[in-house]
Backbone:
């Protein structure tokens, strides 16, 4: 794994949160994007070399809506940049980790992504992401 690619924060209202985080970072998001497959709207901020992703549910079945229902707003996942997502998925599965999807999915910000279940990672939802080149 190369580095932390971004930290995902679950929010109730993307527009309001863009304004709050916009003030914190003194900038506007460089990208906002709907990921229909995940039922989320997202926005991204760049802070130095780091990225922050804000996620808002677009319907009650969204994992983000369920997360907020259970835990409230806050840090939802940590994403790590990987060279070869297929190889990492195979490696982690062999180590006994629960991978939430069979195959990588197209995520936000031009990435192939998959998630590792928090049950197998001390409560932290981990996203692996590989840049689509
Ligand atoms: Zn993410």
Residues:
């Amino acid at each position: 794994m190369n580095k932390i690619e971004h930290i995902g924060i679950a929010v109730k209202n993307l527009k309001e949160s863009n304004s709050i985080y916009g003030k914190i970072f003194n900038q506007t998001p460089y990208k906002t994007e709907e990921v229909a497959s995940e039922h989320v709207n997202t926005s991204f901020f760049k802070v130095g070399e780091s990225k922050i992703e804000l996620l808002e549910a677009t319907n009650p079945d969204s994992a983000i809506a369920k997360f907020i229902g259970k835990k409230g707003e806050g840090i939802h996942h940590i994403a790590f940049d990987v060279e070869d997502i297929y190889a990492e998925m195979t490696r982690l599965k062999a180590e006994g980790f629960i991978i939430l999807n069979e195959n990588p999915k197209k995520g936000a910000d031009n990435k192939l992504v998959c998630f590792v279940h928090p049950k197998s990672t001390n409560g932290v939802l981990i996203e692996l992401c590989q840049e689509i080149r």
